[in-house]
Amino acid sequence: MLARLKLVLVASAAAMAFAPATVAAQAGGRFQVLIPDFQPLEGARNNFGRDASEELRDLINTLVRHQAMERGDIEDEADNYNLDMRDLDCLRTIQLASEINVPVAVCAAYTEAPDRTRTVRATIRDIQGAEEFVLPEFTVGDRDGDKEAARQIFEQFDRYNNQVLATALCTEYAASQQWEDALRQCDVALAINSDATNTRYLRAQLLRELDRNEEALGEAERLLEVDPFHEGALQLAGYIATVRGDADAGREYYRQYLDINPGNVTIRMRIAYEMAQAGDPVGAMGFIQTGLEVDPENADLNEQFGNFAFTAASDAQSAYEMSTPGATGLTPEAAQFYGQAIDAYMEVFAVRGAEMQEGRLRNIVAAHIQLEEFPEAVQKSGQFLETHPESEVLWSFYADALQRSGRLDDAIVALDHVLEINPNHPNAALRQGNWLLQAGRVDAAVPKLSEFATKNPNQADPAARLIFADGHTKGVRRDDYPYAIRLFTAAKAIPGISDRQRREVNFWQGLSVYSQAIPLAEPNTLASAQQTLPAFQEALRLFEGTEEYASSQNINLQQFVDATRQYIEIQEAIIQRGR
User: How far apart are CA 76 and CA 85, in angstroms?
Assistant: First the structure.
């Protein structure tokens, strides 16, 4: 219902009076109304009740859309359930109407004063919607009192129909997501009958759709004051309270709901899902845990618990890293959640085996990796691949686990399996190249990346950037210019590299050649000049055309160009002088 609020449109049986005819309608589309004799109380004579109800049936029969059941028909239906007309108090009337599929019932009872005035209390009941339209109590005199009582109830029946019409329009507008129009019609209905619980619940949902959460929660709470067991209101209140950040209140509303439906696993899972979607995966875990205490081997509950625990771990770690700049390592809270996720998922795997979703198996391996339990990650990956041998996702995670365990060659082979399953996998070959570069195995990495770029021309730049990044990190930043030059040369040799990427590499290769040559030129001898002049000339050539890249990085290219030219002039002068 509530990931994004899905309206449960409350089209009550009475509201169906304004909808197409149903089985409750008689020929001509008129809807039946059950009106038993008014009930005498405290010794009142019963002739008034019989006459008043008959008068009311006649008035109802003047309506276009409604028709009162004949008294004889009511007696026949009551007799089918071993009831007499005098037994039809309001509760039994509602039960009878429900059994015979009559959408509306009118219940009335009265007391009689010594002066033979009668005080009447009456309600109109929406049978399917289980709503009560309570009429104001009134008193009628002895003379024509039965007609007056029938007239007053009939007038209230007209108000009831106006409320039903407004509720039906509210429902119709809501179904087409015209929230403001729907809200206006619900307000009209509630102005007529403020105790219409279904209409008030619908209004609360509309306010939620309009992002007026405070008002929506207020409506739900008002409804719960009238009906503490209204399941929809409890769910809505729980959701809104959780979204507002009041997780404790949200959990309490949901707990009350589950007190009504303690053994319903589907409802428990749905509520827990709504809590997690609203940002409270830890609270959702608590609701599922209660179910697991009753049924610890339930695969559905364990799977959902694992999902929530995995999310809670990620959230806890993210919150820690955001609040602690530069933080490293896993927090104890996140570690606990990851462990709980693994345990729950493994319960599911024990039941479902090959039928278990790959994503859940991936989460198990990922959790072990997060916990730096690399041997366990390798072992679990191998176990899962026995049941899911064609899963590129699991092979990919298996490769990660192997690489983190220091088994690089096995990891490369695992990624080869990924590429066998999916030759167009977006990053398997890049990861192979990156891992080989990290291990210092440049001679193995470059051919891998070159082959990958040849097969996937649109990936040439990413492949070249991996090599370039390694050269920049291990070469330029560590003043190891020979290494940098070697890697930059290899990066530009990747088939299909773009001109833009080439210019970036050229700048840094030029700078590396220039920087390497400077100390070699310091003796200022003929030999040093002859050795370094070609290097400075190469640096100048590499700098050419890199203006756009240098400018984008706020690098003063002209400074390096001028310095390089100056070194070239000096070396040329030394050589000329030496000759």
Answer: 9
C-alpha pair distances (Å), 150 with each of 155, 438, 539:
9, 92, 106
Question: Using CA atoms, how far apart are residues 222 and 197, in angstroms rounded to an integer?
Answer: 10
Structure tokens at 223: 């409804």
The CATH fold of domain 426-497:
1.25.40
d(CA 115, CA 247): 61
Q: 32: part of which helix (H) or strand (E)?
A: strand 31-34
Residue 272 tokens, joined = 């827990």
Run means of pLDDT, 10 residues per run, the chain, 579 residues: 38 36 47 93 92 94 90 93 90 91 93 94 85 89 92 90 87 92 92 87 93 92 87 87 82 79 74 84 88 87 95 92 83 95 96 92 95 95 93 94 95 95 90 95 94 91 96 96 96 95 96 96 93 96 95 94 96 89
Q: Give me the amino acid identity at 448.
A: K
Does residue 253 contact residue 246 with C-beta atoms inside 8 Å?
Answer: no
Question: Quick one: which of 202, 296, 295, 287 has its CA closest to 253?
Answer: 287
Give the containing element (helix H, strand E) for 73.
helix 71-80
Phi-psi region of 326 (alpha: psi -120 to 50; beta: other; left: phi over 0): left
Q: Which residues contact 142 (CB under 8 A, 6 or more apart)?
A: 115, 116, 117
Which helix (DSSP H) or strand (DSSP E) does residue 108 occupy?
strand 104-112
For the chain, the domains span 15-173, 426-497, 501-579
For the domain bounded by 15-173, which CATH number is listed? 3.40.50.10070
Kindly state the tokens that stand for 338: 């990851």
Written as one letter, the residue type at 4 is R
Report pTM. Answer: 0.59
Question: Backbone phi, then psi, for 574, in 5-degree steps?
Answer: -60, -45
Local structure of residue 112 (DSSP, 8 states) = E
CB 523 within 8 A of CB 496: no
Phi, psi of 341 (to 5 degrees): -60, -45
Place of tokens 């899911």: 388
Return the amino acid letter for 348: V
Give the three-state DSSP class for 177. Answer: coil
- In angstroms, the CA 439 to CA 140 distance is 99
